[in-house]
Amino acid sequence: MNANASMIVNAYAKSIVND
């Protein structure tokens, strides 16, 4: 996985946690 995809997935996971 490249850095951009990792960053996007990480942001998505954070949004799930924050919901």
Summarize the helices and strands and which ones pair or pack.
Layout: H1 3-18
Overview of the structural elements:
The protein is an all-alpha fold. Helices cover 84% and strands 0% of the residues. The chain is built from one helix and no strands. The protein has one helix at 3-18. It is rod-shaped. It starts with a helix and ends with a helix. The mean pLDDT is 89.
Q: What labels describe this entry?
A:
84% helix, mainly alpha, 0% strand
Amino-to-carboxy terminus distance: 25 Å
Largest sheet: none
Give the radius of gyration: 8 Å
Overall average residue pLDDT? 89
Shape descriptor reads rod-shaped
- Oligomeric category: single chain
Counting DSSP H or I runs of 4 or more residues, the number of helices is 1
What class, by secondary structure content?
Answer: mainly alpha
Low-pLDDT segments: none
Topology, number of strands = 0
Beta strand %: under 5%
* Portion of residues within helices: over 70%
| H/E topology pattern | H
Brief overview:
By secondary structure, the chain is mainly alpha-helical.
